[in-house]
Amino acid sequence: MHTRILIPTLALAILSACSSQVEDTLPGQPIKHRQEAFKDILRVFEPMGTMLRTNNYDAERFESKAAALAERHERPWDYFVEGSFQPPTRARAEVWSRADAFEREVEHFLEATEALLLAARSREIHDIQSAYDTVYNSCRSCHGDFRDR
Fold first, then answer.
1. Which secondary-structure segment (H or E) carries 127?
2. Of 98, 108, 114, 117, whose CB is crowded by the most CB atoms within 10 A?
3. How confident is the model at residue 4 (pLDDT cuts 50, 70, 90)?
4. Considering only CA atoms, which of 46, 44, 47 is closest in space to residue 67?
């Protein structure tokens, strides 16, 4: 009778130990907060791309998502504090060693998201697609230099 409970419990404990993520133990948990901020941005940005790729563009919904992106676009950056280059971060050391280049990438992203909102308000699909691509390429550029896969 006890083995019926013990074996599944042990299996669950072993599996959870294998898949457990390293916790952010820094004061204020900056790594956790910036990861959550990026996930929040992605939850808004991905549906916009899906609309454009699948020809299901809804001007009102897209504009709403662009506004939500603009509201969130500054959230992650304050959490890239000195001393937060440790697990569970996926940021590279270059964020801090090449801080000027990283700051330029951040500025480019902020400008691109603002331009996307303006394009969304214009409802000109060509301008929207171009502005969306600029934001997407900004993300890729920064990830290429400053984020581990």
1. helix 125-146
2. 117
3. low
4. 44
